[in-house]
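Cross-posted from the bioinformatics board.
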Amino acid sequence: MTAKQSKSPLGDLGVSQRFRGKQGFRNLNNLKLFSNIWRFYDDGFRAMTVGRKLWVVILIKIFIIFFVLKLFFFPNLLNSRFQSDTEKGDYVREQLINRE
Amino acid sequence: MIDQIDLSMVDWSRAQFALTAIYHWLFVPLTLGLSFIVAIMETIYVRTGNPEWKKITKFWMILFGINFAIGVATGIILEFQFGTNWSNYSWFVGDIFGAPLAIEGIMAFFLESTFIAVMFFGWNKVSKGFHLASSWLTAIGANLSALWILVANAWMQSPVGMEFNPDTARNEMVNFWEILFSPLAVNKFLHTISNGYVIASLFVIGISAWFLLNKRHQLTAKRSILVAAIFGIITSVFLAFTGDGSAYTVAQRQPMKLAAMEGLYEGKAGVGLVAFGILNPSKKPGDGENPYLMKIEIPKLLSILGYRNANAFVPGVDNIINGGYKPWFTDIPEEEREMTYSVAQKIEKGKLAISALRDYKTATKAGDTILAKFSRQKLEENFAYFGYGYLSKPESVVPNVQLTFYSFHLMVMLGVYFILLFIVVLYFLNKGILEKQRWLLWIALWTIPLGYMASQAGWVVAEVGRQPWVIQDLLPTIAAVSMIGSASVKTTFWIFAALFTALLIAEVMIMVKQIKIGPKDGGQK
């Protein structure tokens, strides 16, 4: 009997062999769990009013912080100049000695 | 070769960090405190089943969400600055900073952000119990975030639990628990989070007072004031208690900061605490002038605060510069306490440590194991004074006394005022006549910014009072800063000023709009 011919809900969903038997039951529960979680967030975001404005602010802020400030103004000095920890350590040690 | 440091680079880097930290700290305390107030209100709702409490909870939750959203990620810019402007410092601290910040990110932030979604999206979708648990876990997560960064900051003020590795030029953590549970870290964490709780209480009372002044949502307002005033009294007393603990640890570990906090130049046994004072603006260390134009002092109280002994000797600025006194360590018997070195002597020891590091480097490169061993030993013997080797004169260890003194006293005076305000508000609320005391309601409303002022003043004490040190005794700012030009630092300083001001304006506008709308039955997400 194919999934289509089956009267079980699994057949109605057109769900594959993955979701049959004990392991299949677990797999189906996992799928339902992820589905429920997704629907939870989806419903939540869709119902937002003030939250939408806040998310626009958050996204603009994060874009400016990570893609403008970090990229153009805040390179990690040691990472940009040196490859290895040994080189970085030697450089800082020189700095500490020569700043006296 | 002695590298010439652009001092304007040092000053602009410090200014940039201060600006970012001040703005960051405008958002954080309200998150710390309002999250708990919301959790308390929701607990009342779940226990009583009264839908009015649900309405109250949802209203304050929206304001919490606005503050959280605007403030999130503002702290990350401070970490960017470590890597760019303070590269020597960020390498020197090694994994002392890395471990706490990593834990902060992984544990606390994920705890917060996971359950905050349930807080806002989960009404009528999850059980009351699960929703309530999510609210509490969000509050706990927010406060746990604060723990790790404060542990890192406390380590800067009193470096413990580490050993310096001259091969890598890094401090290596050898005792995580000593860092986590250092007395300074414990006090700093408790004092800082309770500061957030007081600000949140003032915020709730102030906004609720506005509702009462406008005769709107009076039941919501009075119930909110009840919760916030009780929470405020408890946490403001705890704030005073932890402030005392902080002063005690500062006296032990950062005596110059304590001296600056009190404008104390010539120490003595049984020193009084300046309750109110005006400093002599032309006072310099060692000039013999009176440090104060006027002062009102509580006898012996500084000795008690600093050393739990009314006759304890509290060193002043001049004593610390000149040395030659026995520090009053309560955990060391007097006969075992050694005379303190003068700063000039510490500078010599610091120079010995730096030259030992130089010799060690030369010796290891040349394969001279005997010289390397000798140099390493000399470095270890003098490492406690490493940072002094960078100072040009003994007076360099004196922070800005005026700024530290006035910030400390402003913070304490406001702290006492907040306790009184909570008590008075609760008294009139209990009498059922609060809404008639329009003078008090206006005071409560205008106290909201005073809470922030006290909070910022506290950080000025902590961070200006520790100057010139980035890491107490081990690394001054002049050795910690990167060798880059000041032009980009100046540019980003103004970018930050504009960005954070825009964020602050956005937050205030969105919050004011929501406050004007007021609590609704369904609330808004």
